[in-house]
Write a structure and sequence with these properties.
It is elongated and about 70 Å long. By secondary structure, the chain is α/β, with parallel strands linked by helices. Helix 6 runs parallel beside helix 8. The chain contains 14 helices and twelve strands. It folds into two domains: 170 residues, Rossmann fold (3-Layer(aba) Sandwich); 194 residues, Response regulator (Rossmann fold), CATH 3.40.50.2300.
Length: 391
Amino acid sequence: MKPCYHLCLFAFLLNFSVPVSAKDFHGFDPANYNGAMLSAAQLQAMVADAVTQTPPQNGASYVFGFANLQRDMIFGIKVEEGIQANAKAAGIKLFVADNRLDGATALANAESFVRRHADFVIEFQTDVNFGPVIMQRFERAKTGVVAIDIPMPGATFFGANNPRSGFMCGSYLGQAAIHRFGAEKARTGYLVIGELPQSGAIPAMRTEGQLAGFMAAMPDFPTDQVIRIDTKNTLQYSFQQMGNVLGRIPPGVPIMSTAINDQSATGMLRAVQQANRQADVLVVGNGADELETLIGEEHLVASVGYFPERYGNYLIPLSLMRLAGHPVPPAVLVQHVLVTPANICQYYPQFKCSDTAGIDYTFPQQAFEAHLAMLNDNPDLQDYRDLIPAK
């Protein structure tokens, strides 16, 4: 792939949508940025501006904290590598901690960052109940925060466009099921959604979007054939919970599955395979970070792309914008695409595209807009309007 095409491709992929515009900051505008990593000179110029507004606590150079969701999962590894590369280029010392999918651990890590006088913190933590108390620690220390995927009160949000990514995932699964099984047989099957209750209302917009998107493809699908499981965001727990529900699904009927992330979707698929029922299963993932699984498993037919390897290219500049006193949007949302074996080489040129064409997928825009209207009317989401896209 030619370098120019590669850059233009990511300009299409990773123009993140934001509710308000932000001033260009040394070539970085979160509303109109192409997702490529800035040069070291640009990042260091950002630091030079920031220190005039917010001097480092140690009097010498910036110290940032990054609390990863879980350091041994692929998505977290890719996010961390991108943050490390940007911090190194900017001349920022980076402390990295592992929240290990646990709220109490995330709180302990936050307190450690405060004790170590971090000038700014990037939080990737899953337990919504711990968000306010973690932010209280940072607010007392006057430490700015960007929160990835799970909102925290007072932090800039960066991450998934949950309603759209979920709706895209579910509608693709529904259309693929009709293509694979036929509409009549697909309606006799079961839809299994792997959720993440501990993370609260915002990730729930992703899994509720999966259900709404699936129903947009199959409006007459019986709701009593929808099964929800708690994934705990891990392959292992998803495998266990999927194994527990398979006994409720009659042999020979379609098993249509999706989940909060690729790891959970993979665990659900493995449980079906262990039960020797793989001929019945169709899976769509979220994250497109389990790329080898996507190209190697015929029953995992697509995954919604998040491009975690590029998160650091936004997170470090956003943090420096905050420190420099520039206005930043309250939320920066990823623009997602569907990655399939048939188009994977367009987004990840190290992989070869499959010769087998995918389905002729159509995003149901009208149904999605009706879903957004329902979200906007939900009083439980009134504090999260910035995280609901306009269309």
